[in-house]
Amino acid sequence: MKLAELFPEGGRGIIGTSDAGGVVNQAVFAIPHVIDEETVAWGFTEGRSIANLRLNPHASYLYLAPTRGYSGWRLTLTLKQVTEEGELLERIKEQAAQSSGTMAGAAVKQVAYFKVDEVRPLM
Q1: Confidence category of residue 71, pLDDT binned at 50, 70, 90
Q2: Would you say 16 and 50 are in contact if contact means Cβ atoms under 8 Å apart?
Q3: pLDDT tens-digit map of 46-58
Q4: Residue 69: band (very low, low, confident or very high) from pLDDT cuts 50, 70, 90
Q5: Measured between alpha carbons, how far is 67 from 52 in angstroms, rounded to an integer?
């Protein structure tokens, strides 16, 4: 199955990160922006998730499909790069402002791109 086909209903999921010492953080995120068959991206504020990723590039994303009961996906991820400018960042800021308010859009400061190391079903 292609990455773009994993999230047809939209929705949200949880990104798990940990710092260099293994202290875990989890945060709710929208579905990823699928860049290609190996790469996904999300917008990030200056919070614990991005701080952890700067120390430890490994993360996971758990997606629960909103219309299919307990089905969804678990993605194992490795951070590739973080950008603080560009078309995708502007698009993410606009989407965040529309869905969650102007302050939410302004809080998004960077886009993190991840290599998808593994995709597994939720159940």
Answers
A1: confident
A2: no
A3: 999 999 999 999 9
A4: confident
A5: 31
CATH number of the domain to which 58 belongs: 2.30.110.10
CA angle 42, 43, 49 (to 5 degrees): 85
100, containing H or E segment:
helix 87-100
DSSP type of residue 5: G
Domain that holds residue 12: 3-121
CB 66 within 8 A of CB 46: no
Residue type, 54: R
Share of the chain above pLDDT 90, in %: 84
d(CA 123, CA 121): 5
| Helix (H) / strand (E) containing 105 | helix 102-107
